[in-house]
Write a structure and sequence with these properties.
Blueprint: H1 2-17, E1 24-30, H2 36-53, E2 58-64, H3 65-68, H4 75-80, E3 86-90, H5 113-135, E4 137-143, E5 148-152, E6 166-168, H6 172-180, E7 184-186, H7 193-199, E8 204-208, H8 209-214, E9 223-225, E10 235-240, H9 241-246, H10 249-283, E11 297-298, H11 303-325, H12 329-341
Parallel strand pairs: 1-2, 1-3, 6-7, 6-8, 9-11
Antiparallel strand pairs: 3-10, 4-10, 5-8, 5-9
Helix pairs in contact: 2-10, 5-12, 6-11
Length: 348
């Protein structure tokens, strides 16, 4: 049944993409349909802005991976096969296909949006190479979710209190980081987290503060630690390389410039304020612009927490990634991301 639904959804995109003979209509699969990145930036760009910017030369048939019933980790695999033209999802969902891709979203190297953006821009040449070689795709843009913070259905007062707890990780490197802190990293799908927290399958879970607010995690959590243990979960927008090569120069320019200026840039501009608003909405410590404020206990990370976390990152997590990634990825990361974030990854 799931396969039938998937094939039906893909067929509908294909049929829609062929209905306008005058325009090049792209079959587009967006990120999570219920989250602000899609609602505020992806959908308006693909549905409204792209046709306007291209003078009607480019349009799109837009859906999302959750609406299609496909896993986030399958988006770029299907994109590589040309099942659709453009795919958008969290890069961490694709790291099983490329260990090197974990280097795009490293926990704690950026505690503010400006630094996170610099880190992503520094990593961009590496990401471009990975998507070209692994997914037969060209990267059009990279936009952030809010920083991935810690929700707990248990009392915590510091980072040390995560020791011995089962924590849903937002990516492979985050899971390694949690294990180095003495916690158990658990793989649970985003949509399954509320039930897992409620039943005690996990004690804590990591996701974006805004994502947790919108998904109702406050109903099954008691404490919030807004330390970005899961990085910023960058969402990559990429186009199948064969489709890209088939476009005219004008279409390529309109698409690339459009994504950069109307999807990527505004998402980054709002990222820092979004975090502050999200924390206020979850904890009631300030005005909530989205709706009703909730009452999670706010646990601020101490200087000792931050120092410990960074030490674990530099001495254990990053060297482990460098060994698993192999090749010259560690050197490329150190010469780019490491340089703009002040993190020195020793390479042989």
């Amino acid at each position: 049944m799931r396969k039938l639904v998937l094939l039906s959804a893909i067929s509908m995109i294909a049929i829609s993409a062929g209905t306008n003979a005058e325009a090049e209509e792209l079959a587009v699969v967006g990120s999570w349909s219920g989250l602000p990145l899609h609602k505020q930036y992806e959908a308006p760009f693909w549905n409204e802005k792209l046709p306007e910017l291209s003078g009607g030369d480019l349009t799109s048939a837009l859906t999302t991976h959750d609406q299609m019933g496909i896993a986030g980790g399958d988006v770029f695999r299907l994109l590589s096969q040309g099942v659709f033209d453009v795919g958008m999802t969290v890069a961490d969902y694709a790291v099983s296909d490329s260990v090197a891709l974990e280097g795009l979203d490293v926990p704690l190297i950026a505690t503010d949006a400006a630094t996170a953006q610099k880190a992503v821009e520094a990593a961009r040449p590496m990401v471009d190479d990975i998507y070209k070689d692994v997914f037969n795709a060209k990267v059009l843009g990279i936009a952030p979710y809010p920083p991935q913070v810690v929700f707990c259905n248990a009392e915590i007062t510091s980072l040390d209190d995560l020791q011995g707890k089962k924590v849903r990780a937002s990516g492979r490197m985050t899971a390694k980081f949690l294990e180095a802190l003495g916690a158990e990293g658990v793989n649970v799908g985003f949509g399954e987290v509320p039930g897992a927290l409620q039943r005690g399958v996990v004690d804590c879970a990591i996701t974006g503060a805004g994502s947790g607010y919108n998904a109702g995690w406050w109903e099954v959590s008691t404490h919030l630690m807004p330390l970005p243990l899961g990085g910023w979960d960058p969402v990559v927008t990429a186009i199948n390389l064969d489709k890209w090569n088939s476009l005219s120069d004008d279409q390529k320019a309109a698409l690339e410039k459009g994504v950069k200026e109307n999807l990527e840039a505004p998402a980054w501009e709002s990222a820092q304020n979004a975090l502050e608003n999200d924390v206020a909405c979850l904890t009631g410590t300030g005005e909530c612009p989205y709706g009703e404020a909730r009452g999670l206990v706010l646990v601020e990370a101490s200087e000792a927490d931050q120092a410990k976390a960074k030490d674990v990152l530099i001495t254990e997590v990053l060297p482990d990634w460098a060994e698993r990634a192999g090749g010259d990825w560690a050197k490329r990361w150190s010469d780019s991301v490491g340089k703009v974030t002040g993190v020195n990854l020793e390479t042989n």
